[in-house]
Amino acid sequence: MDSSTFIAHCLSFDEVIELPHFEKTSFRVNKKIFATLNLQKKQATFKLSEIDQSVFCNFDRNSIWPATGAWGKQGWTIFHLTALTDEMLIDALTLSYCNVAPKKLSEKYKC
Fold first, then answer.
1. What long-range pairs does 80-88 form, CB within 8 A, spacing at least 24?
2. Which residues is 47 bridged to in the sheet?
3. Is 90 exceeded by the pLDDT of residue 65?
4. For 10-52, how does the pLDDT look when each residue is reduced to its tens digit (9 = 90+)?
5. How many angstroms separate the Cα of 21 from the Cα of each of 13, 58, 104?
6. Which domains can be identified in the chain, with CATH numbers?
7. What is the pLDDT of residues 53-62, one digit of tens each?
8. Please, which residues have CB within 8 angstroms of residue 47's CB and are 6 or more apart in sequence?
């Protein structure tokens, strides 16, 4: 997965904006971050539920893992971009978006 494809997928969701977030790029809905992109490390981070985090991490623990500390316990999950297929990316992005977006927006994506 390349960064331009990742960004295009993030921006395809309703009312998403792209803003800097420290050394990363963040993707937000309703002022809340649902994904970040670290170009230097070729990593994306998603806000997942505990169960979804577990499912994705079990897929490939070398390429998908919980963020360290409290962030990981809150569902933030790091994906190495080279491990993401389009299907996996869309699944993770949709779940992450729906975890953060207002109900009226997330209902469209049948989360």
1. 80/42, 80/43, 81/1, 81/2, 81/3, 81/6, 81/42, 81/43, 81/44, 82/1, 82/42, 84/1, 84/6, 84/44, 85/1, 86/1, 86/5, 86/9, 88/56, 88/59
2. 76
3. yes
4. 999 999 999 999 889 999 999 999 999 999 999 999 999 999 9
5. 19, 28, 26
6. 3-107 (3.90.1150.30)
7. 999 999 989 9
8. 33, 34, 35, 74, 75, 76, 77, 96, 99, 100
